[in-house]
Amino acid sequence: MLVSYASSLPAPLLERALIPDPYCLFAGPVILSSVKVLVVGSGGREHAICWKVAQSPLVAQLYAAPGNPGIAEIAECIPWDGSVWQLAEWAEAEGVELTLVGPEAPLVEGIADAFQARGLTLFGPVQKAAMIEGSKVFAKGLMERFGIPTARHKSFSDVLDALSYLEATGAPIVVKDSGLAAGKGVTVATTLHQAKQAAANILSGPEQAEIVIEEFLSGPEVTVLAVTDGVTIKPLLPSQDHKRLLDGDTGPMTGGMGAVCPYPLAPGVLTEIVERVLQPLVDGLRAEGIIYKGVIYAGLMLTDDGPRVLEFNARFGDPECQALLPLLETDLVELALAVVEGRLHELEIKWHTQAAACVVMAAPGYPDDPHKGLPLHLPALPPHGVLYFQAGTRKGPSGLLTHGGRVLNVVGLGNDLPGALERAYAGVKAVGFEQALYRRDIGRKIL
Predict the structure, then answer these.
(1) What pTM does this model have?
(2) Is beta strand 306-313 parallel, antiparallel or unpaired with respect to 399-402?
């Protein structure tokens, strides 16, 4: 049983937790109240969510399922086998009053439905709504029906039909796995051979699969996250992910190697995205009997003809979340409750005026075969303006070890983007992690 989140911190961090500094782990003393909160997930995104939730004076106890060693410093981690119904049963027995879900798989599996069936409050869309991420074919159908701007596209489940279509269209072209692929199911093919290989790899598997083949679009990519209670939509700060493994946007696609926030959209563009993309999606789903409550992730290409939707996700982005939440001044628990209770229109979302930059440190061999069990050493006290969010880590006999592909998120906070990037890379240099993979050009396109 946690008595105080601050009391579970090492002494140096406990000292900083009581200092009103916007860069410290907590913005002030922790005031316990009555709400028990559960965060679902084990990555850097979930560490950031737990970090933000733990700052709320509304929270009496914070759980994480299954969590990671970094999360364990501020929350009680519980074992979880992945069953959404088992977790709902545990949450009911424990008296959990609010659950926030990080990853997409439980949402697509129906965790919100399982919790609602037990009368439990969960911040995240129901299964039917989460299919905007669970099936790109489904999402493209919604965009067509609701008039949401996107790339020209066609879906296939037969490999011969797909190869014939590719032969007729040529390259460059984009091939997407319709199902969940942890951000790695997209091939931007510059040659016909690449496109055919990607289509064949997906459609020739043992499971019934679908792909979406769409036209190649050019322009800056931007992520616009928004929260909605099914009626009201409020956009969050725009950000930019860096999907490719290597500098210069080269190498294989990954789950994301870094992010910057806020992204400097031209005047009027955010309003256009809300009016032409987000509002039609929420209104259209509601008209079809699906009430969407939670976070909407719109991945967009800013083309010469205006914003075009590349993908919808049903949750916070990873690593966009790690750059976004440190800038959120509003209490995340208050925000989540306003969404699930249908009173988002009553809440004003406030932001700090700083910029944030996140650099992902990955294990050698990522994304195909990341090495596990490598030692990871974090500084006892982070450099000023630096936050560390753990992802693929585990505790070994003598300290932290790598236990996944993307291992650590290093977030720098500054008065502007150059200052945030300087601090983020200073934070990277302070980490002991031999052979770590990370990009050295995060944010450079904006600068």
Answers:
(1) 0.90
(2) unpaired
